[in-house]
Amino acid sequence: MIDETDMQHLRRCVALAEEALEAGDEPFGSVLVGADGTVLAEDHNRVAGGDSTRHPEFALARWAAEHLTPEQRAAATVYTSGEHCPMCAAAHGWVGLGRIVYASSAAQFVGWLEEFGTPPPPVRPLPIREVVPGLEVEGPVPGLDQQVRELHRRKYAA
Ligand SMILES: [Zn+2]
Questions:
Q1: Entry's PROSITE patterns (predicted)?
Q2: In the predicted model, is pLDDT for residue 52 greater than 80?
Q3: What is the pTM (predicted TM-score) of this model?
């Protein structure tokens, strides 16, 4: 169940994705929120420099591993503009983070790339739940997913 607080964090993720786009990067943004609602960390894609593993969800998982206890990680929520790729879902699972809420799904992203005539990513976009069973996962969110689509259209559609 996605409430207004979730929506606020998701809107921040979309804003971070737009920041990434405007910085010449791919439009993905994520926010890590503690059990008490505090925003602990946020990031956006940083792959433009040539390291394609620099996804925000991966950065947040590493931040959590360094700064949070296992209990704090399990109680934290990761919000993200686009569903985790398998690499980031695995990092999330290994670090033991909690709930994930995404604005748009990996399946939507792949469909949009196809629509824009852009080659698919080299890594298969498995749903998070196939990579990390038992996790609480919510999304996509109607309306916000279309805002994310528009960012991808600006990035990928020729
Ligand atoms: Zn990723």
A1: CYT_DCMP_DEAMINASES_2
A2: yes
A3: 0.97
Q: For residue 71, how far is its CA from the centre of ligand 1 (angstroms)? A: 24
CA of 158 to the centre of ligand 1 (A): 24
Distance 4 CA to ligand 1 centre (A): 26
3-state secondary structure the chain: CCCHHHHHHHHHHHHHHHHHHHCCCCCCEEEEECCCCCEEEEEECCCCCCCCCCCHHHHHHHHHHHHCCHHHHHHCEEEEEECCCHHHHHHHHHHCCCCEEEEECHHHHHHHHHHHCCCCCCCCCCCHHHHCCCCCEECCCCCHHHHHHHHHHHHHCC
**Across 84-113, average pLDDT:** 98
Q: 28-38 pLDDT, tens per residue? A: 999 999 999 99
Task: Give the distance (Å) from ligand 1 centre to CA of residue 28.
Answer: 9
